[in-house]
Structures are given as C-alpha cells and as structure tokens.
Amino acid sequence: MYKERLLTPGPTPIPQRVLQAMELPMLHHRSDVFKKHLAKACEGARWLFGWDSDPIFLACSGTGAMEAALLNCCSPGDTIISVNGGVFGARWGKIAERLQIQVKEIEVAWGAAVTLEQVREAVASAPHAKAFCIQHAETSTTVLHPVSDVLAEVKRLAPSMLTIVDGISSCATTPMPGGPSTLDMYIAGSQKALMLPPGLSLMALSSHAWQVVESTPKRTLYFDLATERKSLKSGETSWTPASTIIVGLNAAIEIFREEGLEEIYARHSLLSRMARAGVQALGCELLAPDAACPSVTGFFPPPSVDADALRTAVRSRFGLRLAGGQGKFKGKILRIGHMGYVDPFEVSAAISAIGLCLASSGAKVDMSGATIACLQCL
Known about the structure:
Layout: E1 5-6, H1 16-22, H2 32-49, E2 56-58, H3 62-73, E3 79-84, H4 87-98, E4 102-107, H5 116-125, E5 131-135, E6 137-138, E7 143-144, H6 147-157, E8 162-166, E9 185-189, E10 201-205, H7 207-215, H8 225-233, H9 243-259, H10 261-281, E11 285-286, E12 296-300, H11 307-318, E13 320-321, E14 323-324, E15 334-337, H12 344-360, H13 367-375
Parallel strand pairs: 1-13, 3-4, 3-5, 5-8, 8-9
Antiparallel strand pairs: 2-10, 6-7, 9-10, 11-12, 12-15, 14-15
Helix pairs in contact: 1-9, 2-9, 3-4, 5-6, 10-12, 10-13, 11-12, 12-13
C-alpha cells in the first residue's frame, strides 16, 4: 500500500504546520480574533507580492478572480486583448463573452510563449482596448510567458491600458512580474504554490487599477472590489470569507519567510530543471522546451506508450498522482507539478516511477541515466 502523493499543478501538498493551523477551533469571521488574522494576512501578502497596498481576498477559485477583474474594469462593448496559448488563456475570452466584452486574442501555439512582436501587433491594432490579459504560467501547456517584458511593452505603447496578470500558478514560484508601474491587477490562488486548500483568491491592484474600478459602473454585488476595499479598511471582508484558509495562509507565509523568497524561487527553478532533465533522459519529448515553467513540467511519452495509461500506472503502482493533458493535449501528455511543498527527492522519485512504468510498457529506457541526469541538477 502506498500513500498518495500529489505532484499535480493544483491542488498541491499542504505542510503539516499549515494543516495544524487550520485545525484550530472555528473562528467567527466578524470576531476581533479573526480580524487580527486578516490583518496579518494582508501584511503577509504585501510582503509576498512586494506590493504597497492591501490585497483583496475573494472566497472563490482563480476563475472567479479572473471574472471579478473584468467585471470591475470593463463594461459591455469594451474591448480587451488576451493572450490565448492554452486552456487558461482561452478562459479570458469565455469570461469576456459572457460579460458582453469584445476580445482581440493573440493566438499562441500551444507549448510556445508569446512574443513581443505579437504583443506590439495586437496593441497597435486595438489601442483603444480597456485591458491586456495574460497568464504568467499557462498551466495547461507548462509555459512561462515573459510577462515582465510584455507588461513593459504594453505600457510603452498604451500607458492607460490596464494590464491584468493571472499569476495563479506562478505566485511563490518565480518573482512577481513588473510592479505597480506596469502591472495593474495580479491574481493568485490558494491551491497552488501557496500550499493551501482550494477556495481563496488574492488580488493586488495598482492605483491606476483602483481609479478604473471606481469609475466603472457596477455590475456585480459579490465581486465588487471597491466594496471589498472599503470593508477591508474596517478590518473585515464584505461577505463570509474563506476564514480557515486565511488562517492557513498566515502559517504558509511564516514558512515562506523562514525559507526566504530568493531561496523559494531558486528551489522551484531547480525542481523544474530536475524534472526536465529526467524526462528527457527517459526518452520523452518536452512539451515546452523553450519556455521552462518553474511550476509544472509537461512531456509527451514515447509514441508507443499511451499517456493516460502511463499516468494510471504511476498512480496505481506508486501512489504518485500526476496530471494529464487538457484541451488539445488531452490524452497526449503528462504533467509533473512541482510547486509549493515539494522537494527535489520527490521529483527524483517521480522520474524513477515514470521510468519503471515506461519499461513495463515495453519502452526502452535508461533508468540509471535518467536518475543521474535528474540528481546531477542538485
């Protein structure tokens, strides 16, 4: 019997210390005790983001925060530019369609990162667009977009255009892209590298974003960011918060402070290099060879091996849960999540388990070579 280990791009493993914090007796969300937890979470998130103003906490998944971003800064008939290079990039368009917002998509090949030339062309063709939306890490294709450079280019060409970044799968794995001068709205989610259960989203807004939010006609009650900001100034949230997860967030940020942000980013870079070196040494093809993501690594198994069957074998034989493909990659790839509470030896174990299951399926693999390639990254 094996205990199940999550090596998926969300949800991710939760440290025992965080679990213990969330096991304390339930707090009432209007109590003075919880207000102290909320204030501490605001300070911790400011430190994590490197942001001057308090974040907004929403009791929803990341998709809810994406919708909140567009609801609060766009009106029907407005236009946004979005980078569509995967399942989550396409989600901007789906949300915008429901909100009667026009979308100009930058279509990017799955497995590739957006280029500055594509950004320039899109902004030049729609300089009136209200917002530019992009994923930092496109989890479905395991691509890390060059968002800092992209934001700088957007602001150079259209200074008043809002820049909105989905950092759900990149937060706490790599530095926050840009800052308040180029980044207007940043979204993070609890169930990724923040090492928490699903159900909490965080948003950081620039002063320019707040000006737009305040001047945009209201179309939502629950997702009204201006109302949330007003409530936060009194030490509360507008609606019932994900209070237990906020308590856990404080414990997670304590762990982050002890490790140090630069060390956290270096660890995730190491895990990515290990995973990429290991799967290549097993004879697998990387999904995003030129856009390494510190959060998740995707790969195609050898042509003779069924991807879903391989993923099932790894889980049933070794208790390691990997992720499969999404969208056009469904049934074609595997994804190794290595964000948050993951260490090098778990990645090494995953490479070994994948290698053994490949060998059992009849593929020719160099098990020792793959292990060495993986561990030589240390």
